User: Which sequence fits this backbone?
RNA sequence: GCGCUUGUAGCUCAACUGGAUAGAGCGCCUGACUUCGGAUCAGGAGGUUCUGGGUUCGACUCCUAGCAGGCGCACCA
């Protein structure tokens, strides 16, 4: 039900016919020709650039070409009210009101699938997001990427693609050892009243570790905590379990559920790293060598050593990357290559990685490895979520990891709620920094786009409530012989953009388009609603407490679109606020 | 120094994968309420899209050279 695609197809048919009888020359591909939404000042419904695209090859001015095309376009279609040619050569089409009545009829008939692109072929996606270290609760910094990944998944799922949501657990390496030690010292603090060595900068000072320690003590009374080395492995496992438990609670409070949690440690244990390095070696992409010192300021500490390297420069990276540390352990990069091999072996069409801005520099090397492993360069799609600037009391709020005073997801949800957090985090393009103003987010006004959209839905719900009708049940209408007013058609035009909005959000993996669209739709609706204030004839419900069929389904499709949009964003649509 | 990224109204940001006279909100100015729920609406002022070149019917968008902010440049994860 994408009227723009429908008209593009119609147009192409007309063009082919004209070229058959020799009155038009066509290029091999008709790619550049589009049917789009004209700017609102033109008072047309759809618009095409066809005359400008074909003018050169036909050696005619866009205006002349447009004039001949318009005749064929008009002839083919009795739903068109008039066609205009506008300055550079656009052809603008205005439909008769009956077009919009038919449009509504179609939507009601396909209410379950409106907005979904059913013609496009469907893919199987793996999306990896969050993947925060299992050493403590999620904080605000993780939040944007988490929501971005979740909503990208929702968009793909809405469009009937297959999606697997995955969390990569970095449970291997130095940070985990330091984390386990921190838990251990907290345990000793509790059991033997030894004070926590807070001057050790490698340790995690956060108070949540105390809870982990308590839980581990309570669950495992038989363990002898006296000697660290003896229980290190066991304690590591329990500590990670505690952290993951907390992370999952955090994710849950954001409304996020991953399908898989993949353990780095297990990959290493299963020799997957060796296998992938072996594979790369056979392709001459691994060698022993030295990396040049970085060009940054502090090269004094640089020690040059020979180590195992991956030839990522073959794929455009600016230096080759280390696979093995001097103590023989694999680098983070090495096991991540193994993880991506693991992903590739599971036969997905596309792999999506959501990364924080601070990891953007990592993209080149990991995409190099995927290119090396898959021999293609369009398998992996990396999306970066830029930083969130927290603003409290009109001032930027700085978090300090060392002091342990950072705002957790838990704090955020308690203060502003899940819906507002999700909506505001998405409201901007993901590759621009985002201001997250606490005072603003809580405010229940137009300044807060969440409430603005929710309010439009609640208004529609209130009409149905007054009429004692169910907003969620299907509406059946036998006669579609009514016509919509200009104000209503304005909203229907916006509704017709919904499939286009979803399609773009899906193709470009840009979720912010959904809230932006919903805001615009809500805005048109609020305007329309207020017409009833000046003119009682324009109210939905008449004096006899009745509503006409056309208004009833009109409201229904608006609320349906808002509902499906808000479902994608993952926020609620209350019927009363 | 190198890489990535951003630069659009006073402020926060859109702009349909190259379209038309660049749009919203906040703030400012003027209006609409004993509300079909004002958490709303109508109107006004506000622009050299960071700068200079290029590509073409057409550039906020693409290329190129700069300028300015952010992030990154490890055997960390």
Assistant:
């Amino acid at each position: 039900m994408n009227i723009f695609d429908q008209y593009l197809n119609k147009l192409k048919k007309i063009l082919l016919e004209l070229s058959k009888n020799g009155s038009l020359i066509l290029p091999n591909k008709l790619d550049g020709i589009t049917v789009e939404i004209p700017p609102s000042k033109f008072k047309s419904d759809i618009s095409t650039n066809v005359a400008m695209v074909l003018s050169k090859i036909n050696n005619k001015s866009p205006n002349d070409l447009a004039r001949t095309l318009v005749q064929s376009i008009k002839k083919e279609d009795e739903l068109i009210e008039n066609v205009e040619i506008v300055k550079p050569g656009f052809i603008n089409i205005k439909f008769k009101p009956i077009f919009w009545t038919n449009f509504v009829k179609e939507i009601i008939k396909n209410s379950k699938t409106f907005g979904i692109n059913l013609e496009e072929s469907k893919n199987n996606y793996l999306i990896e997001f969050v993947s925060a270290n299992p050493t403590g609760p999620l904080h605000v910094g993780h939040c944007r990427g988490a929501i971005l990944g979740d909503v990208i998944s929702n968009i793909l799922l809405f469009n009937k693609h297959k999606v697997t949501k995955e969390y990569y657990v970095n449970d291997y390496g130095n940070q985990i050892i330091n984390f386990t030690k921190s838990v251990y010292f907290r345990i000793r603090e509790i059991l033997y009243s030894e004070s926590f060595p807070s001057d050790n900068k490698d340790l995690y000072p956060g108070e949540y570790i105390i809870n982990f320690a308590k839980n581990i003590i309570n669950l495992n009374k038989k363990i002898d905590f006296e000697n660290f080395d003896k229980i290190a492995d066991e304690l590591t496992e329990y500590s990670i379990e505690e952290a993951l438990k907390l992370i999952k609670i955090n994710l849950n409070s954001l409304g996020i559920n991953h399908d898989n949690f993949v353990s780095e440690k297990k990959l290493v244990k299963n020799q997957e790293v060796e296998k992938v390095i072996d594979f790369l070696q056979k392709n001459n992409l691994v060698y022993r060598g030295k990396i040049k010192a970085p060009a940054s300021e502090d090269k004094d500490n640089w020690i040059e050593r020979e180590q195992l390297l991956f030839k990522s420069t073959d794929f455009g990276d600016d230096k080759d990357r280390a696979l093995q540390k001097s103590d023989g352990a694999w680098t983070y990069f090495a096991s991540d290559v193994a993880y991506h091999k693991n992903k590739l072996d599971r036969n997905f069409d596309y792999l999506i990685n959501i990364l924080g801005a601070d990891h953007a520099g990592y993209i080149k090397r990991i995409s190099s490895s995927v290119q090396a492993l898959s021999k293609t360069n369009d398998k992996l799609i990396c999306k970066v979520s830029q930083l969130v600037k927290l603003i409290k009391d009109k001032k930027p709020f700085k978090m300090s990891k060392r002091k342990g005073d950072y705002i957790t997801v838990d704090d955020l949800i308690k203060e502003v709620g899940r819906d507002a957090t999700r909506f505001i985090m998405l409201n901007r393009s993901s590759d621009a920094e985002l201001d997250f103003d606490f005072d603003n987010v809580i405010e229940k006004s137009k300044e807060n786009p969440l409430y603005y959209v929710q309010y439009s839905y609640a208004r529609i719900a209130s009409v149905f409530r007054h009429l004692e009708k169910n907003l969620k049940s299907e509406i059946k209408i036998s006669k579609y012989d009514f016509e919509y007013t200009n104000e209503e058609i304005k909203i229907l035009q916006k509704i017709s953009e919904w499939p286009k909005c979803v399609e773009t959000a899906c193709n470009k993996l840009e979720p912010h388009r959904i809230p932006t669209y919903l805001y615009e739709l809500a805005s048109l609706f609020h305007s329309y609603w207020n017409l009833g204030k000046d003119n009682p004839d324009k109210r939905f419900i008449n004096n006899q407490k009745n509503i006409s069929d056309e208004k009833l389904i009109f409201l229904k499709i608006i609320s349906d679109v808002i509902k499906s949009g808000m479902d994608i964003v993952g926020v609620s649509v209350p019927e009363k606020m």
